[in-house]
Amino acid sequence: MINFENVTKIYQNGTLALTNINLKINKGDFTFFIGQSGSGKSTLIKLILREEEATEGIVSVNGFNVSTMLRKEIPFFRRSIGVVFQDFRLLPGKTVYENVAFAMQVVEALPKEIRRRVPTVLGLVGLSNKAKAYPNQLSGGEQQRVALARALVNNPVLLVADEPTGNLDPETSWGIMNLLAEVNQMGTTVVVATHEKNIVDTMKKRVIALSKGEIIRDQEKGQYEDEDTNHQIYN
């Protein structure tokens, strides 16, 4: 599903963001990327989404060689990926229904398919009764669930969530994470970049910890901290 081979990323300003990264995430996995600000986890996400290009090495995602992909191929590649951001990124002038439907319109889905699929996904995230509401009429947690519905509506094989609970209270955060776990159980590969120690420790999924652009730990059923060395990744 996701494969990094000897990947290094150096930004134009000279910042070395990632150094010789090798990792493989299989179809159906649930993986956390953790690490303090500047550790490289956001760059990993950007490389997966082809928002950035690797300076060296090969990045492949869902059968696509992202490293050699032409710019015109990127929109088609991204159709197979759902993305959830910390800041929701909803369209303020559109209703909940319209925000989710827009993601299907972009990929030129048929109107009848949109009418069938959007209510189904809104039901999945518990927002059937908010279809006609606008983003400014929703709580932060509800807005994030709209963003999740939008990410899921095209049946992605991969869901990438970059700090999805960063602006939410603990109870609401757990609601979002439980939804991501349900989506994963239905077969979607899930990758989450997070600072939330309690969530990582409780869910016991695979943990890839980064520091200064390098992977320092890759652990199945991992914790936020490495118990063997009592090394705290983020304070």
From TrEMBL:
It is a peripheral membrane protein. GO terms for biological process: cell division. Belongs to the ABC transporter superfamily. Part of the ABC transporter FtsEX involved in cellular division. The keyword Membrane applies. It comes from Pseudobacteroides cellulosolvens ATCC 35603 = DSM 2933. Keywords: ATP-binding, Cell cycle, Cell division, Cell membrane, Hydrolase, Membrane, Nucleotide-binding. It is found in: Cell membrane. The gene is ftsE. Residues 2-233 form the ABC transporter domain. Pfam families: ABC_tran. InterPro entries: AAA+_ATPase, ABC_transporter-like_ATP-bd, ABC_transporter-like_CS, ABC_transpr_LolD-like, Cell_div_FtsE, P-loop_NTPase. It comes from the Bacteria. One of its GO terms (molecular function) is ATP binding. GO terms for cellular component: plasma membrane. This is Cell division ATP-binding protein FtsE. SUPFAM superfamilies: P-loop containing nucleoside triphosphate hydrolases. Homodimer. Forms a membrane-associated complex with FtsX. PROSITE patterns: ABC_TRANSPORTER_1, ABC_TRANSPORTER_2. SMART domains: AAA.
